[in-house]
Amino acid sequence: MNKIILNKGKDKAAWQLHPWVFSGAISAALGKPQNGDIVSVYNIEDEFIAYGIYNGNSRVAVRLLEWDPSQEINEQWWRNRVSKSVNNRLSLLHDTNNTVRLIFAEADFLPGLIADKYADFISVQVHSAGIEKVKDIIVDQLVQLLQPKGIYERSDLKSREYEGLPDTNGILYGAVPPEFVDVIENGIHYQVNIVEGQKSGFYCDQRENRAITARYTKDKTVLDCFSYSGGFTLNAFREGAKSITSVDSSGLAIETLKNNIKLNGFDSSKHTAVQSDVNKYLRELGEQGEKFDVIVLDPPKYAPTRSALEKASRAYKDLNRRGLMLLNSGGLLATFSCSGAMDIDTFKQVIAWAALDAGKEIQFIYQYCQPEDHPVRASFPESEYLKGLLVRVL
Ligand code: SAH
After folding, report:
1. CB-based contact 33:54 (threshold 8 Å)
2. Labelling 175: which of 256, 313, 361, 390 has CA 20 to 30 A away?
3. For the PUA domain, which residue ranges apply (predicted)?
4. Chain-centre distance of CA 304, in angstroms?
5. Would you say residue 197 has pLDDT above 80?
6. What is the pTM for the complete model shown?
7. Is 369 a catalytic residue?
């Protein structure tokens, strides 16, 4: 058996069930493990800590899987893990919702593996060499559990480079998804482009937050910034918003959003779609003296790492200042950050700072978080990334 021995004093996180062993924590690798091999991890006193998957190319040299020494990491073990994760999502799948994250990597104790369900199709992303080796088992287990029409791989991620893996896109099982798959979320229909859309095609992590925000939009003027295919826009439509403007820099996103409005039979005369940079557009609206009742700001990840946090905080501050300036008195800002490096307290400070700069008195009236199919694993705080604040301007 391949054996990894940790340096003295470098075993604490592993004992606390954190799944990452950094290469710098390793004292010796016995048995010449190859990338993707299962290894046993021991401390310097030769006490067994956990089994994991090895990758000598990665900064995360071992991704820990199992802390019970009596278990064996074999085919059945992988099948059980996949089943457990999928079964935890079944309550979210019903008549008015057929899109969920089935497997959320480390948070589901399946490091480096993401699987999303879009109606009858499943999209899979593989970030680690170890998962690459057992991909066939995982695909087969997903087929047994859910009988999808097709499973498509979208492993075109920066993180694969660090693992020494090439980009891989393509069909893993069954039929290639059509250009647009019709999915339903919160009872609203969306066309999802699994093969070419952003991320794996749709941001189902905002499911609950869209519905919660929409409650405040009846008869209101709404500005949905970073709209993508219209998650917040369509929920606001359904709740009876007076008018909605959606902004995104991607032409494909705007095109899909317009189709989604038609698909749901909403009145497109109440809607304005703008393809633009959000900051530029908000500045223009400010110059024109426009005001809104509800503004959504759901930008992409500004802080990909902790070291980028300071610069990102300034970007979040500027964006939110612009948003706050455009709100009517009593108006609401639903503002999000999907940067794992920015915690909720820091985010609150940034928004408070933006409000000071905007000369607005604000209240935090609700805290958004990520939904149950994107669980936060207690021993892996890195799995918490999505947060938001609902802010009232006085
Ligand atoms: N709110 C969306 C998800 C947003 S994802 C939903 O509910 O589904 C972030 C979006 O921001 C992407 O669609 C991306 O095209 C867009 N984007 C990124 N940078 C942008 C910019 N500077 N201006 C406008 N849109 C931008």
Report:
1. yes
2. 256
3. 2-87
4. 13
5. no
6. 0.95
7. no
